[in-house]
Amino acid sequence: MPSSSKEIDRDPLGEDSSEAIHQLPRIGDSDINDNANKLSEKYIEPTVSVNEVNDKGYEPNIEQEEVIVVENADQLVSHVVDPRDDPDLPVLTFRFWFLGAGLACFGAVLAEIYYFKPQNASVSALFQFIIAYVLGNLMAAVIPSKGKWRYLNPGPFNIKEHAAIVIFSSTASVSTAEAVTIVAILNLYYNIEINPGVAIIQTWATQCIGYAVCGVLQSSLIYPTYAVWPETLPYMSLLQSMHFGGMLNKKRMKFFWIVFIGIFCWEIVPSWMFPLLTAVSIICLADNGRHTVVRQLFGAGSPNEGLGLFSFSFDWILITQAYPLWWPFNSRWNSWIGLLICYALMMGGYYSNVGEGRTNGLPFMSTSIFTSNGTSYQQSKILDSNNALNMTAYQEYGRPYYTSTYQLSLATHNPSCGAAVMHVLLWHYKDILAGWAGIRLGNKNLDVKDPHYEKMKAYKVVPQWAYLIVFVVSMAVSAIILGFLKAVTGFDTSINGIVQLIAAFLHPGKPIANMYASLYGYYAPLQTLYMLKDQKLGQYAKVPPRVVFIAQFCETFLGATLNYCIYRSIMSAHREILKDPVGSRIWSGWNLQGTNSKAITFGALGKQMYTGNGPYWFIPACLGIGLVLPIPFWLMYRRFPKQIIWRDLNTPIITNYMGWLPYSVNGMWWSGALIGFMSQWWARKYRPRWFVKYNYLLSASLDGGTQVVYFILNFAIFGAAGAAKDFPY
Predict the structure, then answer these.
(1) How far apart (Å, rounded) are the C-alpha atoms in residues 594 and 500?
(2) DSSP state, residue 379
(3) What is the rounded distance in angstroms from the CA atom of residue 578 to the CA atom of residue 584?
(4) Coiled-coil annotation: which residues (predicted)?
(5) Rounded to whole angstroms, how far apart are CA atoms 527 and 531?
């Protein structure tokens, strides 16, 4: 799911926290594991190895089976993902280390660049798939393979080697490390310069804490069939097309390269030559800027311009943020309900002057904080030399204000969090119990009926004690880091798994402590999701678990270092733009602004802003609302189990998307909705053969082409390595 998003982030309280919601299995898929077991028994597995498949041109099994309409998880993983395996294929080869490290550097650099973009773009692993495939086959062709050379070239470039390289390169490039974000905020807003070595080690530690949690979640979120992780399906479609022989896959690869080249050429137009195509609104063009309300509701081409109703984008780098080709239709229509409510909620909230956002002259959309007259809030005026709240100065200067739309977005995210907890407890409590049973058994001898998990039993798992060591060491290093920051900057915090709302009351008046509480209590576990996604890819591709473990940790250390280096380069070149509440079409600090705004209001002013007498008391109160939201729908489902509406209605997704729009650029949603409908409903139902063969491959080719050309444009045109160059007038 684009992976993730976050992975960035339309979510007001964190980087791609909605990815956790996206991964929730479809409600009502009864006894998926038993069904998957039956399908795996029915599956006619070839008796030849993968290398023999390539030599003999064996057609994938998908052509031998009756074409069916893919409806649920067991059908998806059995008909889209081929379960064949050859345990003898080499994985930890010279190609793995050379290409994995090189592409890890490439992806980490790109992820950090994207973090400072207004388009909310993120790095897709698909372009890394493409480059790894080309270079891997080139190395296999040109490096001698006889004698001692066989250690550098053990034979043909294989599917496991390829998947392991991508896991190596994508683990930390899926998004910028949040620890680097905090370092950037301290520099930009607090004039605190963290020692580079401390900053990098801090990043390693926080990410490794998240990784350590994976060891206890595999039995419930990796091994079973219901844990599909839809974002990995385009990857597997591309991998199988590249490495399994036969005429079918030759046709697939031809299809892939045609689309790849086409989108590569096209993306130059909306990204540089004709930016209007980022979001085309016929209504705004007809209005010609005469009415502000029209721009607020229908505008979407510029950062923080409007909500983008009926705006259509022709820029795939933006459209792909709506996950148009791989997000399941059930999740998609729930998100549409939330978005439709969001349009009404944001416009109604602004024009009814929620939180005095309109009468004080605040912008319609922004994640920054403002004074009562609409100017930027100067937080340095209310903080003392230790960056803690100075109450006397605060009373003189006045409180900060959120825009009306940002207040409502924060308020709708809280019920989404509460609803997600209750939703999982009500509908998936059996899976949770099974997962805890897996922890007790040490991920051994599990009763999981999944065709891919059955093949993975041939490989040794990473022992639980290894994850425990990672956790203990990471926490120890983190304590050292926080102690260093206390000695240098004078602030302290704790790392007891709390989020910003709780931290506001445990550490009142301390915005920096609040950010670090969020880092360890929210973003470190979020890193677990990225690691779990890659581990699921490893299971689909039959990569040994210990190889996946090695690949993920190596990338963490490379990625964190490069994230920091690129941040310093961008910060020095575009500092003032990053502080601007609007930013530019090329660079924007809206991610930094949102994180810092919450640190000030939750951290420095939590009691003043969010308690019963505070202006934003309703934001934390909404958390309790979310806890009860799924209950009526669950009761209706129990009463009417055959009615689809009660089975598939997903309150966490709906409430999350109710506050999804008041950030950055919004031109992708209607284009994404149209493409998603055609893909996940029409093609899946009426063109099932095309859907299974080409849908996820199409996603891979479109994402891969745009990622490659966007990387080139950023360094050649957009100023990532120097001055930006506008297209000639």
Answers:
(1) 13
(2) G
(3) 9
(4) none
(5) 7
Beta bridge partners, 383, equal: 389
> Residue 370 falls within a domain, yes or no?
no
User: For residue 203, what are the domain limits?
Assistant: 18-279+411-624+661-716
Tens-place pLDDT, residues 505-518: 666 777 887 787 77
Nearest Cα residue to 341 out of 655, 672, 629, 624: 655
User: Would residue 566 count as lying in a domain?
Assistant: yes
Query: How many degrees, rounded to 5, is the angle at CA 204 between CA 200 and CA 205?
Result: 115
Quickly state the pLDDT bin for 17 (edges 50, 70, 90).
Answer: very low
Ramachandran assignment for 516, one of left (phi > 0), alpha (psi -120 to 50 degrees), beta (any other): alpha
User: What is the rounded CA–CA span in Å between residue 277 and residue 102?
Assistant: 34
Query: CA–CA separation, 50 vs 82, rounded Å?
Result: 11
Distance of CA 403 to the CA centre of its chain: 26
| Mean pLDDT confidence for 216-228 | 78
- What pLDDT digit, counting tens, does each position of 653-668 carry? 899 899 888 877 888 8
The span from the CA of 708 to the CA of 700, in Å, is: 12
Residue position matching structure tokens 């905090």: 182
358: left (phi over 0), alpha (psi -120 to 50) or beta: alpha
Q: Looking at the domain assignment, is residue 36 inside a domain? A: yes
Which comes out higher in pLDDT, residue 74 or 5? 74
Reduced DSSP (H G I as helix, E B as strand, rest coil) percent helix, strand, coil of the chain, to 5 = 65, 0, 35
Under 8 Å between Cβ of 51 and 244? no
User: Domain count of the chain?
Assistant: 1
Q: How far apart are CA 410 and CA 598, in angstroms?
A: 10
pTM: 0.72
Residue-by-residue DSSP string for 445-501? S-----HHHHHHTTSPPPPHHHHHHHHHHHHHHHHHHHHHHHHHH------SS--HH
Tell me if 512 is assigned to some domain.
Answer: yes
Which whole-number Å values give the CA distances from 533 to 108, 136, 448, 536, in the listed order? 17, 23, 18, 5
pLDDT at residue 338, as a whole number: 93
Tokens 């089975």 correspond to 647
CA distance 644 to 97: 49
Give the span between the Cα atoms of 666 and 301, in whole angstroms.
Answer: 7
Rounded distance, CA 405 to CA 180, Å?
28
Query: How many other C-beta atoms are found inside a 10 Å radius of the C-beta of residue 582?
Result: 17
